Amino acid sequence: MDYREHRLAYCEFLISSQVNYTQTYLAEHSERYSHDSINRFLRLDVLTPGVLWNNVKKDVVESEKGYLMFDDMVLDKRHSQKARLVRRQWSGNEKRIINGIGVVSCVYVNPELEQFWIIDYRLYDPEGDGQTKIAHMLEMLENVLKHKKLSFKTVLMDTWYASMQVIKHIESLGKLYYCPIKTIRKVNDSSGDEKHKRVDSLSWSEEEQLSGKLIHLHKMPKGHQVKLFRLGLSTKRT
Questions:
Q1: Would you say 34 and 24 are in contact if contact means Cβ atoms under 8 Å apart?
Q2: Per residue in 98-123, pLDDT tens?
Q3: 236 pLDDT more than 80
Q4: What is the CB neighbour count within 10 angstroms for residue 202?
Q5: Which member of 22, 117, 145, 155 has the greatest number of CB atoms within 10 A?
Q6: For 123-141, what is the mean pLDDT?
Q7: CB neighbour burial string for 51-67, b if at least 16 within 10 angstroms, e if fewer
Q8: Using CA atoms, how far apart are residues 233 and 138, in angstroms rounded to an integer?
Q9: Max intra-chain CA distance, the chain
Q10: What CA–CA distance (Å, rounded) separates 108 from 238?
């Protein structure tokens, strides 16, 4: 069954509704759709990443200076006890662990137009598919390179993805990357004479605050350096 018309109507409802997002509420305020028809649509239609890309690809404007941005979010399902994919996980919004559905998303950004498009996503279901968030991120990155074939220069990602595996892979592609690192991450800004120490214990000269500091991340290959920047002394983000 073709549910494209239902998809459009349901998406418009989610965007326009400010308070209530239930099927019952939509049916009560629509002459066209009943509760049963919306319920059937939600049960039977499959909104895959491929469907998302097919709907957005004609709108994406590429740039040689483009960014790929990877992030994850948790859809709050604190009142759901039996819904599939709901699991206890950390929510950045709530700053605590909640019941929710994890989603890893890939966004394409055109910095020249200051526009962006969600081009891919993955549902975080480690019990179902055994995939980590990092595995999802790398899979989507490869999909952009091999299938979507979008031009980009830089990868933007959250702290979660600042692993050796991800960093080395992005470097092997010849791309730049930016990501915050945790304050407890061990680094070494000496020539190897000193032990690694927490990044929040580093001292910064005036020049380094402007131009960055070359350091070695703990557990990275010997001699491998990355450049750190402070995002304003007040934020204490590195």
A1: no
A2: 888 889 999 999 999 999 999 999 99
A3: no
A4: 16
A5: 155
A6: 94
A7: ebbeeeeeebeebeebb
A8: 32
A9: 74
A10: 24
Average pLDDT, the chain: 88
**Distance of alpha carbon 65 from alpha carbon 119, whole angstroms:** 17
Confidence of residue 234 (pLDDT cuts 50, 70, 90): low
66: left (phi over 0), alpha (psi -120 to 50) or beta: beta
Tokens for 106, please give them: 């890939």
Long-range Cβ contact pairs of 165-174 (< 8 A, separation 24 or more): 165/134, 165/138, 166/134, 166/137, 166/138, 167/217, 167/220, 167/226, 169/138, 169/141, 170/141, 173/145
CB 198 within 8 A of CB 184: yes
Tokens of 135: 């595995």
Residue 27: its pLDDT value, please? 86
Nearest to 68 by CA among 124, 144, 131: 144
Strand partners, 227: 214
The Cα–Cα gap between 107 and 229 comes to 23
Per-residue b or e along 165-182, where b marks 16 or more CB atoms closer than 10 Å to that residue's CB = ebbebbeeeeeebebbbe
Q: Can you read off the two tokens belonging to residue 112?
A: 């020249």
Rounded-to-integer distance, Cα 16 and Cα 30, Å: 13
More confident of the two residues 81 and 212: 212
Tens digit of each residue's pLDDT (9 = 90 or more) over 57-75: 999 999 999 999 999 998 8
3-state SS track over 160-228: HHCCHHHHHHHHHCCCEEECCCCCCCEEECCCCCCCCEEHHHCCCCHHHHHHCEEEEECCCCCCCCEEE
- Paired tokens of 214: 């070359």
